[in-house]
Amino acid sequence: MPPFDDWNIIDEEEEQELQDAAFFDGKRDVILFCIDCSESMHELRDDPNYEDVKTSHIFTALEAAMNIQKKKAIVGPNDSVGIVLFNTTRSSETKNHATEIKKNSFVYQPITLISAPAIQELIQLLDAAREDPDLLKSTFPPLTGKKMPIGDVFTSCNWVLRDGAPKTASKRVFLITDDDNPHPGSKQLVTSARTTLLDLTQSGVQIEPFFIATPEKPFNSSKFYSSVLLPNVLNDEDEDTGVLPESISITRIDDLLSQMRFHEVPKRAHFSIPFQLADGFVISIKGYGLVTEQKKGTYKYFVDLGDRMEVANSRTVYVDEDQQAEVDKGEMVYGMALGAAPVEGASDDEGEGADTVCRAVPLGKRPFYTADEIRSFRTLDLEPSIKLLGFKDPAELAFEDSVKHSVFIYPDELKYSGSKRTFSALLKKMIEKKKIGLVLALTRRNAAPVFCAMLPQAESGEEGGWNEPAGFHLIPLPFADDIRAAPLEEAFRAPDELKDAARVWIDKLCVKDGAYPPDSHPNPALAYHNAQLQASAFREEFDPEAFEDLTRPKYDMIHKRAGNLMKEWKRALLTDESANVVPVTTGSKRKADVSVDEAEIRSKHEVGALTKLRVDQLKDFLKSKSQPVSGKKAELIERVGDWLDAH
Amino acid sequence: MPAERAGYTVTMFLIDVSPSMGATRSVELPPTPNGEQRITEMTNLEWALQFVKLKIQEMIFNGRKTDQCGVILFGSEETDNIIHEKNGGYQHVSEYIPITHPSSTTLAKLDALQPSEHSGDPIDALIVGIETQDIYLNKRRTWTRKIVIVTDGQSPMEIEDWEATVKKMNANAISLTVIGVDFDDDEFPFHEEDKSTIKVENEAFYHKLTSALDNGLVGTCVFALQEIARPDMKQTKSALMGTVLRLGDVDVRPEEAIEILVKASKCTTLARPKSWKKFGRREKTDDQMQVDEEEDMTVFAQLKMRSEYYIDHSTKEGEEQDKMNTGSDDEEDNDKNLEMVQKEQLIRGFKYGSTYAPCPDGQFRRLNTRKGIDICGFFHAKNFRRELAMGEVQYIWADPGAPQQQVALSSIVQAMYEKGVLAIARLVSKDGMDPKMGVLEPRVDTNIDFLLWVQMPFADDVRKYTFACLEKLVSKNGESVTKHPYLPTEDQLEAMGKFIDTMDIMDSGEKDDEGEPIPWYDTRQSYNPAIHRTKQALFHSAVVNDITSNPLPPPHPELLKYINPPKWALKASKDAIAECKAVFKVKEVPKKAAKVRKDGHVRAMDEDEDMLLLDKKPAASRKGKELAASQVPVSPKLARPAKESAASDSETEEESDQEPLLLEKRPFNALPTPERSMSPDVDPGRAPGRIIGSTYPLRDFKSNLAQGDVVTKAVEDMGVIIKEVVLRPFASRRHKEMIECMIAMRDTSLKEDEIDAWNAFLRDLKESCLKGAGNPEFWQEVQKLGRSISLISEPEAKKLGGHSEFSESASEEFITQ
């Protein structure tokens, strides 16, 4: 087990540098699922996943809501979720103080911190609904004959959010409906919907619509929603520019969950800084982390108070141990470790017995730096910005020029007008001329400047679904300090025949037009951890057998396609003469030939006579098998035995 | 001669302390922040000692016990050396610091050095140095021996028999460096005017001496000091970690499956600046007035980190939530709610939403994995998406001791290379460790074939944010727009094209061995400024006593090599840049709100929630302001002018506790007040110009006091806030808090001589509370506290040297009535 305690003791400076991931943890997110409960949503259809099961859109929507909650419970345990249903005759029994939930909308889950019981309740409801397809209809009876004004739906959402959402959280409403024209012919209702939506967005709430289309009933957003959802759906930062906002997801019901996944984490910029193309030619950009390692949640400390568990917050203080005095952060100064306390008696330092190292200087002098000075050393007094240094050929960016994940940048019109057209022109021209940029980036005030390659990315135009956005990827380049020289320079090479033998099975195992597909590789360790965490929270038994690691190689496929060829190659390898050369060992002065061949060791092992071998012989053997050579003889013997058993 | 190893070295520093070293010189200091040139005076000895101290500091820094040094003085008052003890002679040479691993004391002792009244012979010192070193290293023959002479070359030397010394030094493989104060150096170049004859001769001799040595060097001090700041990389040899490269199922189908013994080693690894140690100035305590000399010394003690654990008993909804994240910012105020707990009592666990899942080991069962690299498949290199690579790169070598494995790997690498494919590979670094996905790239080098592995993201690691399309804009009517300020015009595109062409840095003008132009910028020559500057600063602080009067010299030019675009490219692109500026017309948006956000961003390092929100949602603050207006229904058209005016409006809206539902988002204070940098959390309830907000008045109050010099303002604002809160409807739930505020305020008023302010405030408060729509209940609560909260009376004030217009009885009466 790694010493986890050490993880908590990250040095402060490092923390500031490493905060990429922590960046997202601090903020809370609130999602209100707002699901249409009309008759068409209740209509039973063949389930996309299970045969002979009939499910309704509303079932799928609730199931998606449940899955999102499950995910969020782990990645954002401080996030809140709520569920509101509209176009139902069921009314909210629990009349909350002063809330004005409109008629025909029902608060199924008020906005609360995500908790295991709430999710379990939803799971139970869904399980029951799967057994009895009419359950949902009876639980949430649809409003027949008419539709609830969408304006009222928004008003209800607004109240529900005000009731439960923390002030500082980002708030979003996931609107799920299949009705593209709830109010045919009523101009007034359109206006009211727009007005109430405006109220909602003004209080910092975003609407993210998920419109369900079926082959029989396509969803035409221009009928109603395009005039309502203007102007700032999904894009709170753009002012009304007379342009339709970006993607409104219109999706088939089976894709609902995957569509929601895209929006699971609210879009947050890592930084928003100027981009200096040349002196006096500056635009503004925002940076987003599109690729960031998702780690297991950090454990917390709890105190068992008998009746409940309470989180214990940790606080780090810095103390002068001799005097047991806490030192305020503002008064700390920084300097070099003083080395070991002087041992020689004649020193003029603090008296004996003191294990705190001190440095004394004449009064009024200061041999240490302040926090500000320290920062200026790290940043070279640069202000956060990106500075263009020049353009290069793409081949200049080598495979091994990688130390950190990339960041995506996108123009921000708000600080410098004209940023978008300039950015757009730069992108277009760089793609055309096949160039990459070299920039110096200081993304946050406390970070250190770093050189980055700037890769242009054109938008991949695929209708619907998710598009690769247009913009630049900043790839941090290693410094000379980060590069390690190759430790080996020479090795035996394969002859062409052997290479050709390898080539044939590589041909078979090569995916045509394939690429590295991140989507098909969910992190198994994370999933395994989360599954256990969820089981523990639900007080269920965890079954490790049921867990499937999707990243394991597809053995059957490999052997089916190339098994024989691989066998051929192995045979060729064994007959290859260069493989049988005895390596010239360098630097061995005195060693006589102690090596015992594998067959001999194996035979010794079989008769249980490994103890007859000497330690150096055991070690040599282990070394040749890339096994550790540490430990006492007994351990070595055990290890050799294990290896022989396994091979 | 074995190659030099790190450590296992004894360096003898021979330092000239002859009277001539006491000559003062002017040393240029880095300019002050406002650009003034600064010059300081120091003796040649102090100046040259900087070199010695930096060298010694490096030894301390590296912390190798086998990196040792000793210091011998020549020209010293006393004579104290091993040869003198045995044979006499060798006057004025003394062993100042015996050979040992240096520590801060070593540096402190060097600081104490003063030029003497005698001159000493460097050759004597050299011989003593050789002898001392030799005796010390008697049993350690393999250690590296170094001698450094620091001198101004002004003292007479006895140079007979120097060849014998050279012989001895070469026999012992000693390397000698002579650091000369104002020695001439043609290459640097440096030339001293009016050099004394003796110095000219001595310099010539040093050159003769060092060239006769196998390993000798003379350098002028100014150059040595500059070179010592040159970025110097710590060469680390990566360890080769044994692992297995697999293809196929080795357990079930071993006859087909492939297994190659390989070694992995690091190719890139992120180096970080050295961490700083934290120090606190020690306050003088009575029992510490020990030795007389130390009385006028400031003592800085190194601090140690300690973690404390608390449970938060505060019941205030919402606030509790906020506190969770702000952590240690406001412990002062919260102390009463916090209970410290011992670490032993704690149980580890995870949060699942608001539910806790205890997990005593701090870790659930791990996925069962087997060490090795499993190839999952191959794909064409052209489809590799470079931006997905997630981190450090590893070399994968065939086992260097197994030719067969080498041939096996080589065949695969060559085949992959020939076909132009990469492999998808799953890596497990140790049995039971979490697997990582990555790709393998084949590399065919001159004499070896190997693979490079880089981590690629899992599905969980990729965030798919949606961004508006940059090129295709759609109008409200669903038509596509071709002309728009967001879209570049033909002219603009052309100007940008020129800019890109002229800023091309593929040809820096230099050529490589094959005559190919070398592009500007090379990762292998770009030093991380943070690392090297931090190191330079660390060293500097260790060798000087005062940062203010002796600031850090500027960074070495090598560090700044790539900070700006190359001059030739800038020159070539001058016209293109001018054209771009003219056609793109990019303008900074002078919006106030935007300004705030910019500031906010600059401090985005603060993990404070509010700030981050401010940062990411530029529009939020504006929207918040509008909210008050939006209680009246507004149509979108009307909303826009409101937006404009709201942005420029100075904020007057106050926190209204009675309507918590309506005001979820409060405007942020747009005026940058000086204390904001201290307490990054901006109080939404704080009006502009006020340094105390209504949300956490006591906290604000205390933090302002802690800063000092704003006491009057703090007391005044506190009074205003208390009155404001008390007189609001439904204030009763904050009564207790307000009384606490009053106690704190009175206490401060009394101590800080704001007595009149308190008395005026209290009378005003009483009057307001008892007035028509006041808050008589609150005043009753105040009365309960009795005399201690009443007006400050003259006797009370006098004790602390203040004044009051009220007598003791008036004060008594005021509160009881």
TrEMBL record, chain A:
<dbReference type="InterPro" id="IPR047087">
    <property type="entry name" value="KU70_core_dom"/>
</dbReference>
<dbReference type="InterPro" id="IPR006165">
    <property type="entry name" value="Ku70"/>
</dbReference>
<keyword id="KW-0547">Nucleotide-binding</keyword>
<dbReference type="GO" id="GO:0003690">
    <property type="term" value="F:double-stranded DNA binding"/>
</dbReference>
<dbReference type="GO" id="GO:0003684">
    <property type="term" value="F:damaged DNA binding"/>
</dbReference>
<dbReference type="InterPro" id="IPR016194">
    <property type="entry name" value="SPOC-like_C_dom_sf"/>
</dbReference>
<dbReference type="InterPro" id="IPR027388">
    <property type="entry name" value="Ku70_bridge/pillars_dom_sf"/>
</dbReference>
<dbReference type="Pfam" id="PF03730">
    <property type="entry name" value="Ku_C"/>
</dbReference>
<keyword id="KW-0779">Telomere</keyword>
<dbReference type="Pfam" id="PF02037">
    <property type="entry name" value="SAP"/>
</dbReference>
<keyword id="KW-0233">DNA recombination</keyword>
<dbReference type="GO" id="GO:0003678">
    <property type="term" value="F:DNA helicase activity"/>
</dbReference>
<keyword id="KW-0347">Helicase</keyword>
<dbReference type="InterPro" id="IPR036361">
    <property type="entry name" value="SAP_dom_sf"/>
</dbReference>
<dbReference type="GO" id="GO:0000781">
    <property type="term" value="C:chromosome, telomeric region"/>
</dbReference>
<dbReference type="GO" id="GO:0043564">
    <property type="term" value="C:Ku70:Ku80 complex"/>
</dbReference>
<keyword id="KW-0238">DNA-binding</keyword>
<keyword id="KW-0227">DNA damage</keyword>
<dbReference type="Pfam" id="PF02735">
    <property type="entry name" value="Ku"/>
</dbReference>
<comment type="similarity">
    <text>Belongs to the ku70 family.</text>
</comment>
<protein>
    <recommendedName>
        <fullName>ATP-dependent DNA helicase II subunit 1</fullName>
        <ecNumber>3.6.4.12</ecNumber>
    </recommendedName>
</protein>
<dbReference type="GO" id="GO:0016787">
    <property type="term" value="F:hydrolase activity"/>
</dbReference>
Automatic annotation (TrEMBL), chain B:
<dbReference type="GO" id="GO:0042162">
    <property type="term" value="F:telomeric DNA binding"/>
</dbReference>
<protein>
    <recommendedName>
        <fullName>ATP-dependent DNA helicase II subunit 2</fullName>
        <ecNumber>3.6.4.12</ecNumber>
    </recommendedName>
</protein>
<dbReference type="InterPro" id="IPR036465">
    <property type="entry name" value="vWFA_dom_sf"/>
</dbReference>
<keyword id="KW-0779">Telomere</keyword>
<dbReference type="InterPro" id="IPR005161">
    <property type="entry name" value="Ku_N"/>
</dbReference>
<dbReference type="InterPro" id="IPR036494">
    <property type="entry name" value="Ku_C_sf"/>
</dbReference>
<dbReference type="GO" id="GO:0043564">
    <property type="term" value="C:Ku70:Ku80 complex"/>
</dbReference>
<keyword id="KW-0067">ATP-binding</keyword>
<dbReference type="Pfam" id="PF03731">
    <property type="entry name" value="Ku_N"/>
</dbReference>
<keyword id="KW-0347">Helicase</keyword>
<dbReference type="GO" id="GO:0006303">
    <property type="term" value="P:double-strand break repair via nonhomologous end joining"/>
</dbReference>
<dbReference type="GO" id="GO:0016787">
    <property type="term" value="F:hydrolase activity"/>
</dbReference>
<dbReference type="GO" id="GO:0003690">
    <property type="term" value="F:double-stranded DNA binding"/>
</dbReference>
<dbReference type="Pfam" id="PF02735">
    <property type="entry name" value="Ku"/>
</dbReference>
<keyword id="KW-0547">Nucleotide-binding</keyword>
<keyword id="KW-0227">DNA damage</keyword>
<feature type="compositionally biased region" description="Basic and acidic residues">
    <location>
        <begin position="314"/>
        <end position="323"/>
    </location>
</feature>
<dbReference type="InterPro" id="IPR006164">
    <property type="entry name" value="DNA_bd_Ku70/Ku80"/>
</dbReference>
<keyword id="KW-0378">Hydrolase</keyword>
<dbReference type="InterPro" id="IPR024193">
    <property type="entry name" value="Ku80"/>
</dbReference>
<keyword id="KW-0238">DNA-binding</keyword>
<dbReference type="GO" id="GO:0003684">
    <property type="term" value="F:damaged DNA binding"/>
</dbReference>
